[in-house]
Amino acid sequence: MDPTPAPSPYFGPPPFKFTPTGGSISGPAFSVTFKILATLIVAALAAAFAQAWLAGRASGASAAGGWFIAGLLLVSYTGWHILRSVTRIDEQGLHQSWVWDKHMELRELAYGKLIRVRGLEWLIAPRLYVRTLMGKFAVFYAASPEMVAEFERLVSELKAFRSQR
After folding, report:
1. For residue 162, which of 136, 133, 128, 127 has the smallest C-alpha distance?
2. SS3 38
3. In the prediction, which pLDDT does 47 show?
4. What is the pLDDT of residue 132?
5. Are 133 and 108 in contact (CB under 8 A)?
6. CA angle at 59 for the pair 53 and 63, rounded to the nearest 5°
7. How many Cβ atoms from other residues are within 10 Å of residue 124's Cβ?
8. Beta-carbon neighbour count of residue 140 at 10 Å?
């Protein structure tokens, strides 16, 4: 008698399969215009703090100066991630480098929607909202037209796959 139990059958919906064109695509998550705007905002905040510091209105020892420094550091950290963020899609899933890296496996996807503001894509990056069968959701940004086209194809194939029931 074999002591190894037989694997239990899988009772859930079938896993979604998607192969990106070329096997893997990656691109910047945010547009150049948005990156420049974010950099200008960080620089303006840093200049405002430097001006207040030189005028003697904000010092690191005062409560107001400490909070301003903390806020400036947080905005700078987020701005750095806006500049460096990359979105990638491959056979396994969606990935985006960010303050915390995001990952969503394709086989678990239940729903997807591409959200975009036509005419303002040069500023507002199109984003892919995805949700898994367990309800977990994530948003992935894409600035390159190739990635947006791949997102559109993913959404249409996912919709067709999940409506086959």
Report:
1. 133
2. helix
3. 93
4. 93
5. yes
6. 135
7. 18
8. 24
CB within 8 A of 98, min separation 6: which ones? 29, 81, 85
Confidence at residue 37, expressed as pLDDT on a 0 to 100 scale: 96
Residue burial 49-85, b: 16+ Cβ < 10 Å; e: rest: beeeeeeeebeeeeeebeebeeeeeeeeeebebbbeb
Report if pTM > 0.85. no
**What pLDDT score was predicted for residue 58?**
66
Residues of the chain with pLDDT under 50: none
Strands (E), 15-125: 24-28, 86-90, 93-96, 102-105, 109-115
What pLDDT sits at residue 33?
Answer: 94
Name the amino acid, one letter, at 145: P
Count the Cβ atoms, other than its own, within 10 Å of residue 7. Answer: 6
How confident is the model at residue 10, as a pLDDT? 61
Dihedral over alpha carbons 150, 156, 160, 163 (to 10 degrees): 120
- Position 154: which residue type? L
Kindly provide the residue ranges of all beta strands, DSSP E only, lying in the chain, ordered along the sequence. Answer: 24-28, 86-90, 93-96, 102-105, 109-115, 127-132, 137-141
